[in-house]
Write a structure and sequence with these properties.
The complex is a heterotrimer of chains A (about 120), B (about 350) and C (about 160). Chain A has 3 helices and 5 strands, in the order H-E-H-E-E-H-E-E. With about 120 residues, chain A is α+β, with helices and mostly antiparallel strands. Chain B has a 3-stranded antiparallel sheet with strand order 1-2-3. A 3-stranded antiparallel sheet of chain B has the order 6-7-8. Bound molecules: iron/sulfur cluster (3 copies). One iron/sulfur cluster sits at the interface of chains C and B.
């Protein structure tokens, strides 16, 4: 008897279903979706590469690039927490499904500070 | 003349989303014995402590199980914190309790849907999962994940929730609770639910205790035991009374869980009232050295974490005894002598979480 | 609500996962996401299914089961790997019993990333998978026609090779 009441109520209330693919979903600002790098502040220090529990991030110092394997990242946000320059962030939008594994490679324009040239020892 | 047959149940079975395999020895329509076999989702994650350092391992611990993921992460952190002698700031303790109770509510609602589906009550299944989505919305807003919260870390919590937000959540939970009453009343009063659950899967109090049942399976048999009474995290300030039913059947176990949902709402209300201000994390220095057993109450029962550190960044040993693992022997006992069509219902009343059990 | 031309049936198998993704697959069937409005039905029988959803990575014991389910499904079929575990092993990729992602055992058509994969993501993945299914079906139809043409020629006899 009770159930009839519940069933009738849901018959007359507005639908609980989100009309998903037709209307895009709005995410909460804190949702962990995918990782975004702010390339201008990254110093290629490799801390995120060491900290990432799945090894999704690769930092290439010689080639000046930071790359992430999207299909390996588990959105834990540990890299975001541990980056000393705070240049990583979580974007609420998830990586969209694909037929092959995607690797995003970003070029980082960071110039390492020049070491002071050693004062030339005058020839004796 | 009796005819013995062995009927395989699983590993891929429509009632359960997870693979479990039971060989049911049946005589006519009556189950004589049930023989489980495991290993379909064994991952061996306890060995991963050798490869991941103790802070990274929080994320692995959270993925022991996706339903009670937060309590797994919290239990691991609690064990490591005890080893390292860290005392958490009170706000972190309260936030952890808040999330732990939210995950208890969402787990019990999930279970309620699955058990309703097992006895063929599709409407109830849909309605409990509809309400569960509202809980998940709160979780996603505060932690950033729907099922894997990722909010615990060694030395506190990774996120803070503003006090205004907490007040708003308190109001939302009140409306959810009111909505939930309509559904749980069905469990309490509906004739067909009673017919399907009463007197099925009897587990006497002695058997439950001897076979080492935990959680609602044990409390449904009249044994008041709840690890929250130990007073970890914020439970040291909050009174938790174990919920006990004495009928020892499937219906009693269901009622324990349903009353626990309301108890969790009550605990959350208390947590929100008393939420202290201040820091949510403290800096962790050094590496764990020593060993500790942590006991926590999960939605499915008591869980044990054993951690042994050796002063380096990798732990020596990590071990978890999950509640479903402890509830399997009582389940086999319950299945002896039941009717074949009751098997799915009985399996679901222990709230099996196979990925917990096999780790 | 005619998003798809047909109503695809799917079968769901759980490899070695943490079941976070499994409950998200189940959540897709419940009122908030309700994929049944597109005619998608979750069946327990691989012989009825067009789409195989796999969550979790493959280990020693589940490998034959997955292979068997895949072989039981009628052609054309699509495999969708859900969650990071299923695509690459994710956080468990260093475990001692892992065989790797689902693609180590059977061919995968669509990868759905996320840990746990969100229901919206799973819906998107299924939509993408169905596009793959349509192309596969077209190719398969041509193939079948070719095969049938051979059968329909009753007088066709291969020339006996000269001695
Ligand atoms: S993203 Fe941050 S942690 Fe990673 S290399 Fe750049 S500065 Fe270092
Ligand atoms: S979110 Fe986690 S898994 Fe993903 S790149 Fe960052 S640390 Fe690695
Ligand atoms: S991808 Fe993440 S949530 Fe999904 S099964 Fe694997 S560990 Fe669990």
């Amino acid at each position: 008897m009770k159930m009839t009441y519940v069933a009738l109520k849901s018959l007359f209330s507005s639908p609980a279903t989100a009309n998903y693919p037709a209307e895009p979903k709005t995410y909460y600002p804190g949702t962990r979706g995918h990782i975004v790098l702010e390339v201008s502040t990254c110093t290629l220090c490799k801390i995120c590469e060491i900290r990432c529990p799945t090894g999704a991030i690769q930092v290439d110092r010689e080639g000046k690039a930071w790359s992430i394997e999207r299909m390996k990242c588990i959105q834990c946000g540990f890299c975001v927490d541990s980056c000393p320059r705070k240049c990583l962030s979580n974007d609420p939008q998830y990586t969209s499904p694909a037929s092959e594994k995607i690797t995003d490679r970003l070029d980082v324009p960071y110039e390492p500070p020049k070491r002071k040239p050693k004062p030339e020892t005058p020839p004796a | 003349m009796s005819n013995r047959t062995i009927i395989p149940f699983g590993p891929q079975h429509p009632v359960l989303p997870e693979p479990i395999h039971l060989d049911l020895v049946v005589e006519d329509e009556r189950v004589i014995e049930a023989i489980p076999s495991f290993g379909f989702i064994h991952r061996g994650l306890e060995r991963l402590v050798e490869k991941k350092d103790f802070q990274e391992f929080t994320f692995v611990a959270e993925r022991v199980c996706g339903i009670c993921s937060f309590i797994h992460g919290m239990g691991y952190c609690q064990a490591v914190e005890r080893v390292m002698g860290i005392t958490l700031p009170p706000r972190a303790d309260y936030l952890r309790t808040f999330w732990a109770e939210l995950s208890r509510i969402h787990s019990h609602l999930l279970w309620m849907g699955l058990v309703a589906d097992a006895f063929g009550f599709e409407n109830l299944f849909m309605n409990s999962w509809r309400i569960r989505e509202n809980i998940l919305d709160i979780v996603e807003e505060t932690t950033g994940g729907r099922v894997i919260f990722g909010a615990a870390k060694i030395g506190g919590t990774r996120r803070d929730v503003t006090n205004d937000k907490l007040k708003e959540i308190g109001r939302t939970l009140k409306t959810i609770e009111a909505e939930l009453h309509a559904i749980t009343d069905v469990f309490e009063q509906d004739y067909s639910v009673q017919q399907r659950l009463r007197g099925i899967g009897i587990l006497s109090r002695e058997d439950a205790f001897d076979l080492g049942a935990v959680g609602p399976t044990l409390r449904g048999s009249g044994e008041p035991m709840d690890a929250r009474c130990e007073g970890y995290a914020a439970y040291r300030d909050i009174e938790v009374e174990p919920i006990v039913e004495s009928d020892c059947d499937s219906y009693a176990r269901c009622m324990v869980r349903i009353r626990e949902i309301y108890q969790s709402f009550d605990i959350i209300r208390q947590v929100l009232c008393r939420m202290p201000d201040g820091e949510t994390e403290i800096k962790v220095k050094g590496y764990p050295n020593g060993e500790h057993f942590a006991r926590l109450e999960q939605p499915r029962g008591e869980v044990l974490y054993y951690v042994k550190g050796n002063g380096t960044k990798h732990l020596d040993r990590f071990r978890v005894r999950t509640p479903t693992f402890a509830n399997i022997p009582p389940l086999l006992k319950m299945l002896q002598g039941c009717d074949l069509p009751d098997v799915p219902v009985i399996v679901l009343t222990i709230d099996p979480c196979i990925s917990c059990a096999e780790r | 609500m005619s998003m798809f031309k047909r109503s695809p049936w799917m079968v769901h198998y759980d490899g070695a996962s943490c079941n976070g993704c499994d409950i998200e697959v189940l959540a897709c069937l419940t009122p908030r996401y309700d994929v049944e409005r597109f005619g998608v039905i979750n069946t327990g029988n691989p012989k009825h299914a067009d789409v195989l959803l796999i969550t979790g990575y493959i280990n020693e014991q589940s490998q034959p089961v997955v292979r068997q389910i895949y072989q039981q499904m009628p052609d054309p079929k699509v495999v969708i790997a859900i969650g990071i575990c299923a695509t690459s092993g994710g956080i468990f990729s260093e475990c001692y019993n892992t065989k790797g992602g689902v693609d180590s055992t059977i061919p995968v058509d669509v990868y759905v990333p996320g840990c746990a994969a969100r229901p919206e993501s799973i819906i998107d993945g299924v939509v993408k998978g169905l596009a793959v299914l349509e192309t596969k079906r077209a190719a398969w139809r041509i193939e079948r026609k070719k095969r049938n043409r051979v059968f329909r020629l009753p007088f066709f006899k291969p020339k006996a090779s000269p001695p």
